[in-house]
Here is the input.
Amino acid sequence: MDDSGMLDRSLYRKLLESAEEAIKNSYSPYSKFRVGSAVLCSNGDIYSGTNVENASYGLSICAERVAIFNAVTHGCRNIDAVLVVSEPQNPVPPCGACLQVIVEFASSKDIPVILRSLKGTEKTFRLRDLLPVSFSKEDLHSV
Ligand code: THU
Here is the structure.
C-alpha cells in the first residue's frame, strides 16, 4: 500500500481477479445473490471466498467471512485490503457481522474496503467509515 492507503495497481488487479474467480463458485441457490471476496495479507498473499448457503438458511455464510477464514487458515492474521464483488450496479458492502470479523484481522481501521460490481462500478471506503465504532480485543482487556 502507498501512503494514501490505496493499493498499487498490480496488487489491486490480483485481488480483483481472485474475487472474480471466487464469485463463479458462489453456492447461492436460495437467494440467487452471488458474492465473491478476496483479502490481501500483509505478506502479499491473497485469499478468496464466496458465499455458501444452506437449506437451513441461517447456516449460510458470506463471501467476506469465507475469504478471511481461508486467510487465517493459511496463517494470515493481518489483512491490508478487502475487495467484494457482487452483481448489482450499486456494489454491496459487507454486512455488519462481516465488518466485525474484518476488524478482528485488519492491520488498521484505515485499510481500503473495495466494493466492485461485475458491471464495473466501484467504490472504495476505509474500514473505519463503514464501522466507525467497533468492539475489539482492546475492550476485553479494559476491565
Ligand atoms: N452476502 C455476502 O456474501 N456478502 C455480503 O456482503 C452481503 C450478503 C450473501 C449472503 C447470502 O448468501 C446472500 O448474499 C444474500 O444475502
Remarks:
- Residues 9-140 form a domain with the Cytidine Deaminase; domain 2 fold (CATH 3.40.140.10).
- Residues 28, 31, 33, 35, 51, 53, 60, 62-64, 84, 92, 94-95, 98 surround tetrahydrodeoxyuridine (CB under 6 Å).
- The chain has five helices and five strands.
